């Protein structure tokens, strides 16, 4: 059985990186797989504990899911806090994972900064909760941006260690599924989940600095296009985007050492749904003064309807809550079934 799981944190405005790296792919995958899409609200406590409007932010991400085209009937859409088994499985994974594994995570190093002793324990254990999110549903595929690749590798390490440590009990209970690890065929309870990191915009960069990831937490609003930006703002941000003085190259090799040009070409390709080769073939030799208006027009064409739909859906918070409640019930039933087996495998006395 193949199943997709992914999530977005309710930590501020969604930007074009979140859209191209995650949401746009979620929508395409709903036609191919059974999918579960979560608003991972408990993750948002790891860096900032007290939020002014966490419930509203949670609804806003759910509205963005729906506005991007996710169907709440075909997919399970819910927020993490409604299904307490996420935290429960994360605790077990905290006991499976090693501190050294967590210490090596680049996102932890970046977010904790120099004063690591003062970072929250939750920030360090973040990947354990992420592994629990995915493995609670025994998801086989996770669409994410490039920045989450390391966390997905850790998810596989946790699954593999759990499968190894409890191999005898898993086999005795008959809960194992045959899977391939390298050349070996083993019996495991949790799948070794594959990341889905594909396409021309797996790492959208800041519009002000092509070497930095486009991010919600960048202090400059000009560095990102927010899904809530209106058409004029989108066009202004693209006009002001940093570029070099050369015309666009006619092939992909010509993008080497030109991170800003590479970023804008990648964004254009992802929005248009074409390969980057096609974009350089079309715009090669032209100046940014010609390319930027074309990119702005395309971005507005794709994002304006999502923006309008987000506003329409957000005006009805009771509807958004009903989607999250219904999704939470469906996710909760699946989570309960997994945890019943996990309790038995681990030997926890719960019934
Ligand atoms: N720049 C990006 N390019 C491509 N994909 C991206 N994602 C994030 N930034 C980019 C993908 O969006 C999904 C949801 O991300 P998240 O909300 O869980 O958290 P994040 O990665 O921490 O988002 P930000 O904007 O980068 O927040 P801060 O500023 O807090 O670091 C994920 O699939 C992610 O890969």
TrEMBL record:
A motif ('HIGH' region) lies at residues 10-18. It is an enzyme of class 6 (ligase). It catalyses: tRNA(Trp) + L-tryptophan + ATP = L-tryptophyl-tRNA(Trp) + AMP + diphosphate + H(+). It is found in: Cytoplasm. Its EC number is 6.1.1.2. GO terms for molecular function: tryptophan-tRNA ligase activity. ATP binds at residues 9-11, 17-18, 145-147, 204, 213-217. The keyword ATP-binding applies. Keywords: Aminoacyl-tRNA synthetase, ATP-binding, Cytoplasm, Ligase, Nucleotide-binding, Protein biosynthesis. L-tryptophan binds at residue 133. A motif ('KMSKS' region) lies at residues 213-217. The keyword Iron does not apply. Belongs to the class-I aminoacyl-tRNA synthetase family. HAMAP family: Trp_tRNA_synth_B. Catalyzes the attachment of tryptophan to tRNA(Trp). Homodimer. This is Tryptophan--tRNA ligase. The gene is trpS.
